[in-house]
Amino acid sequence: MRIAIIGSGFSSLSSACYLAKQGYEVTVYEKNEQLGGRARIMKNNGFVFDMGPSWYWMPDVFENFFADFNKKVSDYYELVRLDPSYQVFWQDSPDNIPASLDELKAYFEKYETGSAAKLEQFLAEAKTKYTIGMGDFVTKPSLSVSEFMTLDTAKKGLSLDLFKPISKHIRQFFKHPKLIELLEFPVLFLGAKPQQTPSLYSLMNYADIVLGTWYPKGGMNEIVQAMVSLGKELGVNYITNANVTSIATQANRCTGLQCEEQFYEADVVVSGADYHHTEQKLLDIAQRNYSELYWKKRVMAPSSLLYYVGLNTKVEGLLHHNLFFDADFNQHAVEIYDTHKWPQKPLFYVCCPSKTDDSVAPVGKENVFILIPVSTELEDTQEERQRYFNLVAERLEKHIGVDIRNHIEVYETFAHKDFVSNYNSFKGNAYGLANTLKQTAFLKPKCKSNKLNNLYYTGQLTVPGPGVPPAIISGKVVADLIQKEHQNESVIRSNIN
């Protein structure tokens, strides 16, 4: 049976491997020249930039993925745990966030007496949420609320604090603003305002603090290369520069993909492309799960202003990961999610992988990736991109004493318009849907079409949600669903042939 997968992001690459392992004939169609979706790389004058994801969290998800194929992460790339995990620049002075839990408890205690013991309790609860969430909830296709209605699941669900916002949950343990911001940043940068995010997502704090922050030598694209290599070993076929312009259908089934002038037949279609784009641009209106009005009402995670900067000198004062919280945390959150304005004093993130990896920059030079989370409701212009780069450069100079603008050898930007043109991203979003209660589990867009019985969706706009580990899990969820629903059909076709 032939399975066509649209797009080659992590969810698609994951799904391709699982489906090929099950014996299906799998082809991945990627519109761009490189495989990897948002996790592509940019090479320029000896610098190698990861264009998208830069945080390696939840290492167990990657290990579990490769273990499903009797492989190990170490078969494909070298993984290094970062210590310190990252650096935070506050308004007064920067702090290194240690990888050691004992050292981190001492750090918490420095700001708030008694907080070390509270951190242990907070992380114990977060571990429970991580264990249940990753073991019992994210692996479900979430096609119906009935999937969660077993007595066992209901009991476990009570411990997830789905109806309490994470902002309130954190404040029940800690009072110092630095500790609160440190624990809230994963949801602000990747999902929604902490006041609108279920405390379930304290599981991200467990992932950060206990499971650690890691880096694959060579960059995040090494994961892409590993998954593609595995896929090829399993028989997956990859076609790049294959822009899917429509999904062909007959009655209630997909029959194949139209890629510009070329048509490819398929028995099952999986879209790892942007869900909104797939429905609104590749299908007729009668074949869509959701209307345009539905999508307009979705709460989106941020878009991003990205800068890829190659410096002709080494820069002191930066670590591999650097968070700049030297401005009002709540104000920026309001500007992203409520007022949808260009931020006056944005928080931002700087990744400097050349601090860890000599291969991503020429000798004596620095690879710098800068990210500013912004609303998806903004007009992206070159003038705004340059204005915000200058703002960031000035803030950087204040903290590290160097004006990076005097040392630029490579300078590239990527923002809203590029997310749309490169990835067909809905509203130019960078991370998918915000992790609000009303957009969790079976309340997310469904991973299977209601109108076409052989069309499936995977990726950040469906279950389980945004991020690299959830994307890998999403690919497995869909592959398992296809195997469950089409295995008899596969057997029948095999016998006929």
Describe what is shown at a glance.
By secondary structure, the protein is α/β, with parallel strands linked by helices.
Structure description:
The chain has 497 residues and is α/β, with parallel strands linked by helices. The protein is 37% helix and 19% strand. The strands form five sheets. A seven-stranded mixed β-sheet has the order 7-6-15-16-17-14-18. Strands 9-2-1-13-19 form a five-stranded parallel β-sheet, covered by helices on one side. Strands 10-11-12 form a three-stranded antiparallel β-sheet, with helices on one face. Strand 3 and strand 4 form a beta hairpin.
Summarize this structure as a short list of keywords or feature phrases.
497 residues, alpha/beta, FAD/NAD(P)-binding domain, Guanine Nucleotide Dissociation Inhibitor, domain 1, Guanine Nucleotide Dissociation Inhibitor, domain 2, 7-stranded mixed sheet, 5-stranded parallel sheet, 15 helices
